[in-house]
């Protein structure tokens, strides 16, 4: 299984598509406690599957001001003005749902407000032009993304907005831009995905599909080393591409403790693994197919993130912040407090749909598409 060929979300706008099952990522996007690069402010999402009391509304109201703070810091570091007539922005790992529209629109509006204040004080009447690059792997559903863009108001700012958008297929673990050309990079819920599954997992992690409590120590070590290589490569390439004083905002899954064997922050994937084992026992899936299936995902702890950034050296870490988000964070449409059974059932269905939206391409490529409906019907 070639990772770059299957690491895309479910395409289109159907019931199981990422576009219709991405509310968790919306929370993460609004949670981006933004960056100041020159400085690269990295936000680690300690995205735990345990329920917590943090609501979407509280998360959004708490964190969006931090996005503004970071953009203000970027302009302040430029001594009150940005010299570029055209600002280049990128969403790395944009996927194909409405989250990209939300965060890009928010960033553009925030920058325009900052530029307007500068323009008014300088008696200048020109806002910068924008080049916005939407990056993901080649099999991402860019068609659906640009259909959403054409039906959005992204091009309509508070003043006349000259915004040029480009699809940019390719891995963010490779070079994407010429040197010293990029002003602002954003990535939400993507950097926990590795460039590849560590070698040798077929024989060392047989009963698991990712790192789990029952994984042997050498599996944890192999995944950790792969993460260190990948994140270091990512930072090195962005360091070459970004201008001096540029900024990055990164949010991604993390774990709450340093020892990955002490907690299971991927309970949703553990449940998926157990369901696959049941299907092996019933001979719906071959045992060797399950043993050869591993997910290229690694949620780092805060210290791992700090260590890679410091050792790689391209960026200065301004802020590192962890927070918790529940898998069914968007389960606020109907109040079922008087019917806990119904509430639990609906919550489970929402979680299963979210997992299916990002796991189905990998599962279908490895096991065949015929098992997907039954698999998620059991979860």
UniProtKB/TrEMBL annotation:
Protein name: Benzoate carboxyl methyltransferase
Keyword annotations of the record: Magnesium, Metal-binding, Methyltransferase, Transferase
Entry-linked InterPro entries: MeTrfase_7, MeTrfase_capping, SAM-dependent_MTases_sf
Family affiliation: Belongs to the methyltransferase superfamily. Type-7 methyltransferase family.
UniProt entry tagged with the keyword Magnesium: yes
GO biological process: methylation
Listed GO MF terms: metal ion binding; methyltransferase activity
